[in-house]
Design goal:
Shape of chain A: globular
Distance between the termini of chain B: 29 Å
Largest sheet of chain A: 4 strands, parallel
Helix content of chain A: 40-55%
Order of helices and strands of chain B: EEHEEEHEEHEHEEHEHEEEEH
Radius of gyration of chain B: 18 Å
CATH superfamily of the largest domain in chain B: Nucleotide-binding domain of ferredoxin-NADP reductase (FNR) module
Shape of chain B: globular
Structural class of chain B: alpha/beta
Number of strands of chain B: 15
Helix content of chain B: 10-25%
Strand order of the largest sheet of chain A: 2-1-3-4
CATH class of chain A: Alpha Beta
CATH topology of the largest domain in chain B: Rossmann fold
CATH class of the largest domain in chain B: Alpha Beta
Radius of gyration of chain A: 15 Å
Strand order of the largest sheet of chain B: 10-9-8-7-11-12-15
CATH architecture of chain A: 3-Layer(aba) Sandwich
Number of helices of chain B: 7
Number of domains of chain B: 2
Largest interface: B-D, 45 and 54 residues
Oligomer: heterotetramer
Number of strands of chain A: 4
CATH architecture of the largest domain in chain B: 3-Layer(aba) Sandwich
Order of helices and strands of chain A: EHEHEHEHH
Chain lengths: 144, 279, 267, 340
């Protein structure tokens, strides 16, 4: 398991976290390379189905990140998103899907260091949890 | 195609892509396996299931005539998942094709007769196959008239071929656009196809009419043809219902007890009169 | 039952309503929906313990809407569904007469949303003690045990969409599962498609479901879909203090927010 | 071949299960799961439930799976490679404990799948499937096999038909060559039959309507929109009836997995509003009443005329599964009695 390199997909908003991740890079901070970033206009646009699609396509872990409360470029997209995350996490947990594989966070455009910490911590968490075989096994199951 | 693998498609390469109208394209397709291409035959009026691997299949008629060997063509409007994928293809890419399926226009029976083609919008493609087929065998038929209309000038498909047909002394072409769809330099008629047909009043004697168009056009065209003296058995159309299999099994395309994929797609107006309105 | 029949007879004879949507005797001793349009047929109405279907589902069916103004024999769940549909701008006020049947067999006509609200306010909107206890049993299972349980349940899903059809709040004319650009949910009923379908449906009902249980009753293969809905009902109440189907003018739990919604899970 | 009648018992059947397993066969049989009984792979007779009138779902999955791969493909640099299924690799299957109505249903399915263009995967699955039916000792109000030419002890479609004769004993009718092969090497397990009439062990199912009248009656009713609207008012347009039906064969074809993926066939239902919807938005059957009419017409008018077989065997599953109690027997009676 030690050589397991987790696949992590990060769904981030354009205005805060994407800029924050950019700052991480321009500040030459190093962080775990296992993350693939997908940029959205707003966390409010990140449908829970996208998270399921990431798992279905082989993600072992997911990061969803956007502007801090009250900092949303569209004023309330992140508040709406937060409600959906709360409900979605509860549902995943009830279905027996480990919610530790989905990390939600607020990372502002100024928090380059926080982004690096977030990715590193999530990568470590997912490394400990191992590959998400339980989900990946679903692919192809039930086809005769 | 062997009977053992009815769902296995031929592989065809996109040879040429032609923009016909906004969101309407024609693909010229050649068989990836030359031997398969040489063995492949079809007759005008038949259709196939075209597929983009990973996106799925969709149904169109073969828009090229069987008299032109070595390739087939399809013309489609980008509307759903598969047509959007087809529209994104470039020459050299591979698609799947199953067919030919369905019945045919009985063009042998039409020999020595006048032919009247009436089409609307994106429904010219099924007729283009038969038009080129009879033009390639021109001496077997008498007068050929084509009435074609679309909503706007931009929506007319096969503009180059329409011009080519119009330029021939042995074809009469009438093009029309819906009122408001004309451009400043539009030379054709302005009006709906049934009205234009009514005014053109082609003779019905010894004439076979082929009508393809949206349901609303068909609905208003049949009575005009009847008034002009066309017997229902001399009026042909081709139906397009949703299909998945193309081979009489998936259960979608039936109009009453008739399967568009097996008993059609070509029907006469006489047949349609005995069928329920499920198309 | 006789009170109900008399009421229906009177409403139809006076043309107050054009149709009474109620329960009649069906196959194997069960009840089924009936659409009484003639006062002489009012004797076909029944109301007893077999009358479980949430008839509010028919308020969204075009063919039934065409019949004209309706009276609806309404269980408490149906009354809450009407309010939820009203809150989602799917039903106009004053166009429907709900006939609530009390335990004593009395019929309470409710002609307006405010009348329904007042009636519903007196009923218990919380999950029952048994329902809560059952949820706690599942919540107490290990993660892996719950995953195995649901994997087995969903593997039997046929994607017949009986759950969706039976649900009065699944009224979209084109469901997400039928949108294919992109293909959000796989169409085939394989394990992944079934999981995504059921997660999607539960999420889209979060904060909306009134716990009528018709999805579970409709499921031909017996998947306990009610558990998903009840879990989300419990969570939505615990986290946001929100219950569906209590007011005709209400925000949807999932399309609003509070600045202080819990966020202890967010880094 | 001439039908042989033998007798056997539970103990012998249990040994037969072991023999089939040893031969590498998959055994599908009614099995209890929760409060539902459905066909599932079993390894021993003890797992099999035979007390129910019917299972929820039909055994059609053996020949027409819910989801099956037609072929897979991989694309690279504009080139596509197709990998076909090997029809010889389909599982050899014994369906045990299905009712005579279900056994009869395979000929309806075969009529659709082998009509004109044969369907190789279906045909391979059917050829690899042996059918051991068990006669009905009980029926319920949803059963109407006898109205459609079947019966609680009908042998049509079974390779072997067992009839419980009490005390764990069974009469075994070896109906086909496939049935004879199924018990080959198990001669000792099947004794010469005591001369017994199986009728006394069978359920009684009354004939509810004249099946010859249904097709013409449907044709006469086709344009009676009020009749169909009334008949289908309760119907909510789900696919439960079609999916539990042993003869419903409508399907969809879907690609999955991107450019290197699979082409799948999966069940579909004429009850769904989107079943016939054109991309343009036009729908030839926009109303639920038209879709319900299509369901009955297809089974009782179109199939008999086009494929010379009924699309219904009277198992009653659709009525039992329907969330809103659309009882097909009632609807057929209404058709038979309607005066257009």
């Amino acid at each position: 398991m030690s050589d397991f390199q987790p696949k992590i997909v990060a769904f981030v908003c354009n205005w805060c976290t994407y800029a924050g991740a950019d700052l991480t890079g321009t500040s030459r901070m190093k962080y775990s390379p296992q993350v693939s970033i997908i940029r959205f206009p707003c966390t409010g646009r990140i449908d829970f189905m996208l998270l399921l699609k990431a798992f279905a396509n082989g993600a072992d872990g997911i990061i969803v990140s956007g502007c801090h409360p009250n900092d949303c470029h569209y004023s309330s997209g992140n508040f709406h998103a937060r409600r959906r995350w709360i409900v979605f996490r509860g549902l995943l947990d009830f279905l027996g899907i480990d919610v530790r594989r989905v990390q939600f966070s607020w990372v502002s455009a100024a928090e380059g260091a926080k982004w690096a910490q977030l990715v590193n911590a999530t990568a470590e968490q997912i490394r400990q949890l191992g590959p998400f075989r339980g989900y990946q096994r679903l692919r192809g199951a039930g086809v005769e | 195609m062997s009977a053992a693998d009815v769902f296995k498609p031929f592989l065809l390469k996109v040879d040429q892509v032609t923009d016909e109208a906004p969101d309407v394209k024609t693909l010229r397709l050649v068989f990836a396996d030359e031997r398969e291409g040489e063995d492949f035959t079809f007759r005008t009026g038949q259709f196939g299931e075209y597929s983009v691997f990973g996106e799925g299949e969709c149904t169109f008629c073969i828009a090229s005539p069987p008299t032109r060997r070595g390739y087939i063509e399809c013309t489609f409007r980008k509307a759903g998942r598969v047509t959007s994928a087809l529209a994104g293809l470039e020459p050299g890419e591979t698609i799947g094709f199953r067919g030919p399926y369905g019945n045919v226009f009985p063009i042998q029976e039409w020999e020595k007769k006048n032919l009247l083609f009436i089409a609307g919008g994106i429904a010219l493609p099924p007729m283009r196959s038969v038009i080129w087929n009879v033009l390639d065998l021109r001496d077997r038929y008498r007068d050929i008239t084509i009435i074609y209309g679309a909503r706007t000038v931009a929506d007319l498909v096969y503009k180059r071929e329409l011009a080519e047909w119009a330029g021939r002394p042995d074809v009469k072409v009438i093009t029309t656009v819906d009122p408001g769809g004309e451009t400043a330099d539009w030379q054709g008629k302005i009006g709906f196809v049934p009205t234009v047909l009514d005014k053109a009043a082609p003779a019905s004697r010894d004439t076979v009419a082929v009508v393809c168009g949206p349901p609303i056009m068909i609905k208003f065209t049949f009575p005009v043809l009847a008034r002009l003296g066309f017997a229902p058995e001399n009026v042909f159309t081709t139906l397009e219902n949703r299909m998945k299999c193309g081979v009489g099994k998936c259960g979608r395309c039936n109009v009453g007890k008739y399967f568009v994929c097996k008993d059609g797609p070509v029907f006469t107006f006489a047949q349609l009169k005995g069928m329920p309105q499920e198309y | 039952m006789e009170t109900l029949r008399n009421k229906a007879r009177e409403l139809l004879a006076s043309k107050t309503v054009r149709v009474v949507i109620g329960y009649g005797r069906g196959s194997a001793g069960g009840a089924r929906a009936v659409f009484i349009r003639d006062p002489r047929h009012a004797d076909g109405l029944i109301f007893d313990g077999t009358c479980l279907q949430n008839l509010a589902v028919y308020l969204m069916k075009p063919e039934v809407r065409q019949l004209g103004k309706a009276a609806l024999v309404a269980t408490p769940h149906a009354l809450r569904t009407i309010l939820q549909l009203a809150a989602e701008n799917q039903l106009p006020d004053h166009e429907l007469l709900a006939l609530a049947v009390t335990a004593a067999g009395d019929v309470v006509p409710l002609a307006t949303f405010s009348a329904i609200e007042a009636h519903v306010a007196a009923l218990n909107a919380d999950l029952s003690a048994d329902e809560k206890a059952e949820l706690r049993r599942y919540e107490a299972m290990g993660l892996e045990q719950r995953r195995t349980f649901w994997e087995e349940q969903f593997s039997r899903c046929l994607k017949c969409y009986a759950c969706r059809a039976a649900c009065p709040l699944c009224y979209c004319s084109r469901c997400t599962v039928e949108c294919n650009q992109p293909q959000w949910i796989p169409v085939p009923a394989h394990d992944l498609g079934n999981l995504e379908w059921n997660v999607m449906r539960a999420m889209h009902l979060a904060g909306r479901c009134v716990n009528c249980g018709d999805c579970s009753r409709a499921c031909p293969v017996g998947i306990p879909l009610y558990l998903l809905n009840q879990e989300l009902i419990a969570n939505v109440f615990a986290d946001f203090g929100f219950r569906s189907g209590l007011a005709a003018k209400s925000e949807n739990a999932m399309s609003t927010f509070k600045p202080n919604d819990p966020e202890d899970f967010i880094r | 071949m001439e039908m042989e009648i033998r007798s056997t018992d539970r103990e012998a059947l249990a040994k037969l299960f072991a023999q089939w397993r040893a031969e590498g066969k998959r055994i599908l049989a009614p099995k209890k799961s929760g409060d539902k009984i459905d066909f599932a792979p079993v390894t021993s007779l003890d797992e099999v439930s035979l007390d129910q009138v019917q299972t929820v779902q039909s055994p059609k999955t053996a020949v027409f799976p819910r989801v099956e791969e037609l072929f897979s493909f991989s694309s690279m640099d504009g080139r596509v490679e197709i990998r076909e299924r090997d029809p010889a690799a389909v599982p050899r299957t014994v369906i045990f404990g299905l009712r005579p109505c279900d056994a009869a249903a395979f000929s309806s399915l075969a009529a659709i799948f082998t009509w004109d263009y044969p369907d190789s995967l279906f045909s391979a699955r059917l050829a690899a499937t042996a059918v051991v039916g068990v006669s009905c000792s009980r029926a319920d109000e949803f059963c109407f096999c006898t109205s459609l030419g079947g019966g609680p002890g009908a042998t049509t479609g079974s390779d072997i038909l067992l009839t419980a004769a009490g005390g764990g004993a069974y009469l075994a009718e070896i109906v086909s060559e496939k049935g004879r092969q199924l018990v080959a090497g198990a001669g000792g397990l099947f004794q010469p039959a005591m001369a017994k009439n199986k009728e006394s062990f069978l359920a009684k199912v009354d004939v509810a309507f004249d099946r010859d009248k249904i097709g013409p009656a449907l044709a006469a009713l086709f344009e009676d929109t009020a009749f169909w609207a009334e008949q289908s008012l309760r119907c909510l347009g789900c696919g439960a009836c079609a999916y539990v039906c042993p003869t419903c064969a409508c399907f969809d074809i879907q690609d999955e997995g991107g450019v290197s993926g699979k082409r799948l066939r999966c069940w579909d239902s004429c009850g769904f509003g989107l079943f016939t919807l054109h991309t343009s938005g036009h729908n030839p059957r926009p109303l639920q009443s038209q879709r319900w009419r299509q369901r009955l017409m297809h089974k009782f008018a179109y199939m008999p005329e086009r494929q010379q077989v009924l699309g219904c065997v009277g198992c009653g599953r659709c009525s039992r599964a329907c969330p809103v109690d659309m009882n097909i027997l009632e609807h057929l009676r209404a058709v038979a009695e309607a005066k257009p």
